[in-house]
Every structure is written in C-alpha cells, then in structure tokens.
Amino acid sequence: MTYEEFVNSRLGALARYAVMLTGDQHTAQDLVQETMVRVQLNWRKVVRADAPERYVKRMMINQYLDWRRGSWLRRVFLRPDADEAVAVPVDHAQRTADRDLIWSVLATLPRQQRAALVLRYYEDLPDGEIAEMLGCTVGTARGYISKALARLRESAEQLSLGGVR
Amino acid sequence: MIEEELLRDAFARHEEQAPPLDPLRRAIDALATRRRRRRTATRTGAAAVAVAIALAVPVQLWRGGVADYVAAIGVESSVVAPEGPLNLLLLGLDQRGDMGEARSDTIMLVHLPADGTAAYLISIERDVAVEIPGEGRRKINGAYTAGGAQGARQAVERLTGVSVDAVAEVKFSALREVTDALGGLPVCLPQRVTSHHTGKVYPAGCQGYTGTQVADLVRQRWGGLAHGAYDRDRIGQRVLLGLVKKAGDRALLSDFAMVSRLVSTPGITLHTGDLSLLGLAVRLDRVDAAHIVGVSQPTFLPVTYGGFPFEKLDPQVAPKLFAALRDDTMNDFISTHPDWVLQE
User: How far is CA B342 from the centre of its chain?
Assistant: First the structure.
C-alpha cells in the first residue's frame, strides 16, 4: 500500500474520527493535519505496522492526549502561518437542545475519558484494544469509561431539570 | 443504557462536521514538504555528492597552480556562475585491480535547480539495466568498465534523458584519505552494520569514523541491510553529509595545511566539460546543507533478463522523476512522491 492509496481510502474516516475526539471541525482539521504530516514523513515505518490504519489512529490519539501537555497546542495554535479558514457548515442539530446536550457535556470530559468513549461507542472496540490504544491497562480504560458515563448521566440529570430530556 | 444510545447517536450525527478533505489534503502536503526540508539537514544522509565535488573543485584548482587559485579566490565576486539548472554526475569507484576492472558502484545525479539553495541527490541503483551501444543490455555500473567516465555519462543520459553538465569520479581510496585529512567524519547510522569485508561491526547511532572505517562502511551491501545496494547508497549519502558538515566546520578553503593534504589525494577526477571550475564552485557554494534532498526508489524490483539478475526502475514513477529533472520541477516531484525521499 502506498501513502497515496492510504490517504485516498482512509482520510475521510480519519477526519471523522478526529471530530469525535476533538468535538469541533477546526481542531479536528489541525489534529488530522499534524498526524498525517508525521504519517507521510514516516510512511515506511507506518506501512510496516500490522494494521496501518490502527497505527495511525493510535498516533492521532497520542497527539490528542499530548495536546493537554501543551506541546501540540503551542505548535498548532501559535504557529506563524495560519491555514486558510474552512467554512463551518451550519449544524442544524445544534438547534436541538436535547441533541446538543451530550455533545456539550462530552466537551467537558478529561481527554482520556473522551477518547475511551470514542473508542468504545464510535469505533466499537473491545476493552482490551481500547486499553492498547490509550497505552493503559484494561482496568484503567474501564475506569475512564465508567467515570465518563457517570459524568454524562449526572450532567444530563442536572440539565434536564429544566424539562429537556 | 440511555447514555450509551445517546452517545452513539451524538457521534453519528456529528460525522458531518468532519473537515472537507481536499483542503485538508493540500494542507498536509504543504506542511509535510516544509518539514521535510527542515529535516533533511539533520536526518538524511543526502549530501553525498555535492560535497565530493565541492572537495574535488579546490583540489583541481590547486593542481592548476597556487597563484591562480589564490588570485581566483580573491576575485570570486567577478566569477560568473553558470545559470539554469545543473546536473552533475558522481561516480563512486570500487577499485578492483586497474582502471579496466573498475566499476562505478555508486551512481548519483546531483541536480541543482535554477533558483534557490536546494540540491537533489538522485541515487541510481547500480544493477539497473541499460542498453549500451555495441554491448547490448548491461547493468549500468558496467558502463564505466566499458567506456570510462564518458561511457557512464552517456549511459545515464540515455537512461534519464537528462543532460549531464559535469562528472566527478571518486575512488573509495580517495574517500579514505580525504576523511583522514579532515580528521575523521561524523556519520550517523540508522541500524547496526556488520562489514562483509572485514567483519567489523559499526553500531547504530552517530560517531566519528576514521578513513579506513569510512572506506569499509561505504562498500557494505549485505549483512543486516535489507535492501542491498539501495541501503549502500544511503550509507554513502550519510558519509557525504558528514563530509559536508566537516568541510564547513573546518573552513576548508582557508586551511592551507589541509588543502595541501587534499591536493595530494589521488583518485578524485573532475570532468567539467564547458563549465568553468570556479563558476561551478560558486554555484555549489550557494547550496544550503539544510536544503539537500536525497531521492531514491523506495522499493526493490528485481528482474531477470536472459538468466541474469537486474534491477528494474519503477515504470510509473521513474519517468516522472526524470521528467522533473529535465523540467527543473523537482520540488513538485517530491511533494507528490514523498516515499521517494530519503527519510532517515
């Protein structure tokens, strides 16, 4: 598989995955861009992995978690040459408070917890693989998920006191 | 659980927020090209050749006469550097016996674009099949055996369609002496190399190498190296990057004692044709070590003709590479074929 073939077939899926992790289009674009530049520069190594796509998704998770520590944030947001802006399509779903609720609560979660939810409920991975992607033990991965679900439940209850459910 | 359903639903609905792919792709390619240029300075062994030639030039000038040399350096600003893109051919020679036995084991084209400070080093695998007039199909390294530097030059020109402006021949023995004259070279290896010839083991990582070690290292082809001659080309490029750095450090042109030693190095021969040596030196001086890009075929394509093993060039990409050399559009080529750029 060449880099070109990989990009042609997988870039769309990677872009969607980045949205799930970051929660918004611009940050998703930066995340995909930063990851894919590394993929391109290290293609020989990537293609040697047993499952290149999984490998790239793990790179993206690492990049996303690294953001918290600042290095990625500095590089992406403080870089001198900002990329041309991409128009954000109007998200009609946002008008519905009910639907927006989960998404906005997700934004308040610690990154490991959000990543764990994405891996289980968007990627449908078993716990063992979630742990591998996050570089932690299975117990820790399950802990992230149950804490995140508890937080979602709690927030949903608080917010739905106003009648939204 | 209701939360789980809501989550799946929220994820599914937000898929449409994914950034548009075409601009994303362009941004990735542009950023990768910029970063690759920065990286080549420290990570590719690229410089192979620019340097060997840059070294050969003052040596040749020196042989032409000390007074002329000094005077020429003094009036460098009036020297007219050749315009337009330049293509230089570097031949690394394995000396088995006399010249008649010599084969060009390292074949590289150094392409200097008309504008800017970049240089591209294109490695041509020595087992690539070429048609040699009167000889039939041969490996390209046999072209030197059959026709000397002129024969090698014609074979490369026929293969690529690129017009070669100058040829430099460097024997492995010259590499040894130049290295010792410079007090050793820093070379970085991505993996351990075990010498097929001497049994010596060179560890992965960066260290200083003596002339004897360097000469041994650049001849390695088998052992732990997975891609045969391709890997050797990469070692050669690493060694020559070490040469570039070292020559820069030592202010080569102003060190009288060192130039004297280099002068006595047998085994470097430069054929410049219509080019002025000094003009060539001025053009090479414009090359920024950080903008040297190594280019080689990423895969090994063995093929058999008439029972003999050869290497095949990629039938899709190699013609594009050669066209980019002829049209002076190498920057576009490396953007669209990142896997042809040496990474480490």
Answer: 10
